[in-house]
Amino acid sequence: MAKSHAANLPREAKDDEKGIQETVQLIGFKLGKEFFGIRIINVQEIIRHQDITMVPRTPEFVEGVISLRGRVIPVINLRKRFSMDLGDRTKETRIVIVELDCGTVGFIVDAVTEVTSIPKASIDPAPPTATGVSKEYIQGVGKMENKLMIILDLNQVLSRESKQKLKQMVV
After folding, report:
1. Which CATH architecture has domain 3-169?
2. Among the four residues 1, 51, 86, 94, which has the most C-beta atoms within 10 Å?
3. Span 75-82, mean pLDDT?
4. DSSP at 95
5. 129: pLDDT confidence band, cut at 50, 70 and 90?
């Protein structure tokens, strides 16, 4: 792994004299047949899919808003954001509530699959054509026993303009 890439990943466990590896803790989820991960430190909670109130004049990938314990939370459809087939909502569909630099946002995912730790040494930079997901949204690709996990940088998934619109939705 390139040193510059490793430096971009936040420290979540420190090396010590006993040789303990630095790891990144992730929530794993599926979109279609692809496995993705996001840093657990950004995740506030995971909830079942619920009714979403549409909001006019928002980007296409913004499904609308939900009320979560009195808070208005914008909800993003990651399948739409990544130009994937929409697929069907199932009993496994979840909304992952995360804290981003623009505030609290929900992301619709097909299923949450795991909570895991990956050694930083097992995370490679994103190849230019790994998936249909733009490289700018990817922090890296984690190599696990029997699969690859695309590690997303959720702050990059939204443009500055989209972040401003989301802030306006909850004012």
Report:
1. Beta Barrel (2.40)
2. 94
3. 91
4. E
5. low
